[in-house]
Amino acid sequence: MTLMDIIQYGHPILRKKCEKVTDFDAIPKLIGDMFDTMYEEEGIGLAANQVGVDLNLMIIDVSHTEETDEIHTLINGEIIDSWGESIFEEGCLSIPEVRLEVKRPEFIKLKYQTINGDKKEDEFSGLLGRAIQHEIDHLNGVFIVDRVSPLVRMQVKKQLKEIEKESNMKKRSINRKESFVL
Ligand code: CO
Q: Is 41 labeled as catalytic in the residue annotation?
């Protein structure tokens, strides 16, 4: 079991559109490590850039809701249609302790690839549909704080600054360690 560090708000990899997966042979180990990390952190979804990997890949497990007992690995996902509307409180492993009510479409149609590279198109709704939209946002550099009103964003501004500060400190300490390798 390999646990990866969850990248926190403030790191630039969480603000960019992730690269497409082209080498499907290279990803099984990453996916396994991501599931280990997500379960350890008690999340229901995780995007690859949240563990510092610049690839359009997400994992989701909402089996505790009994909607489904499937676990999901969705690669090169792209929402090609959406309709309806729902409001739901979301948290995020990259923004600890912040929970926000986010308005999103209730239904989405997603184009994606499976772990074998097979191309698929499916419709999703409910908690699974919402988790997919949250992770797709990550893979496009978007956070839940971008999806709320300026007023609500103001209310969490201080918390965001603190997370950002810690995130920058971590980056510096990693760089310092690397500078010892001569
Ligand atoms: Co998140």
A: no
Cβ atoms within 10 Å, residue 27: 19
Architecture of domain 12-179 in this structure: Alpha-Beta Complex (3.90)
pTM greater than 0.90 (yes/no):
yes
Sequence-distant (≥ 6) Cβ neighbours of residue 95 within 8 angstroms: 8, 9, 143, 144, 145, 159, 160, 163
Q: What does the pLDDT look like over 28-84, one tens digit per residue?
A: 999 999 999 999 999 999 999 999 999 999 999 998 876 677 899 999 999 999 999
Distance 96 CA to ligand 1 centre (A): 9
Where would I find the H helices in the chain?
A: 28-40, 126-139, 150-155, 157-178
- Judged against a pLDDT cut of 50, whether residue 177 lies above it is answered with no
Ligand 1 centre from 92 Cα, in Å? 4
Active-site residue identified among 135, 164, 166, 178: 135
Ligand 1 centre from 44 Cα, in Å? 10
In this model, does residue 128 exceed pLDDT 90?
yes
